[in-house]
Amino acid sequence: MHDMCIKRALLAAAVLAATSLPVGSALAAGNGRSAQPSLASQARESASAAASKVWQGAQDVALFALGLIGVDYRFGGETPDRGLDCSGLVRYVFQEVTGVTLPRTSREMSRLGDKVALSDLAPGDLVFFNTRRFAFSHVGLYLGDNRFIHAPATGGEVEVATLSQAYWKKHFDGARRLVGVLPAMVPTMIDSAIAAAPAVASPGDGPESTADTRP
To answer: How many other CB atoms sit within 10 Å of the CB of residue 210?
Structure first.
């Protein structure tokens, strides 16, 4: 299990590193002095450090999700103890690893982050499928090596599947990367996230059924 406070602190540090300049540099710029050669290198180092932390967070998401294999599927489920549905799984993992609460439904999740081509998928990306005859009705977490983890349907349990399987290949509906959106979501939440106990997930727009329509 990851320490949520540590993860929140890392994300906050990533945000500050990516968006802030050293005080001395800011004062120099304000006084109209020419930029020193070190300013560009400092900015690059800050951006690189921030990107590294966020990317490591994306990999941590995938690793944490693997620990949920075998959890029973439950329509509307949001915790391992009570079962998980597809979006509940993704939401739980991101909440535990990053401290960020994602929207409740896969359709809402599909609006976050940046689109990712199938050939460019990386661990931690969200993969979406049309399993109920409407777009983005199912979601999973990409693990790498053409594999993703998801909570499939009633009667099943959290499992690993491959994108090359005929069913998933046919119903693949796109992918999104949250590496860019997570830092942007943190500043408005960081104070309450650190001060509060582990948050109780809000009901959002309510659960969704992820039962697929395989013959």
So the answer is: 29
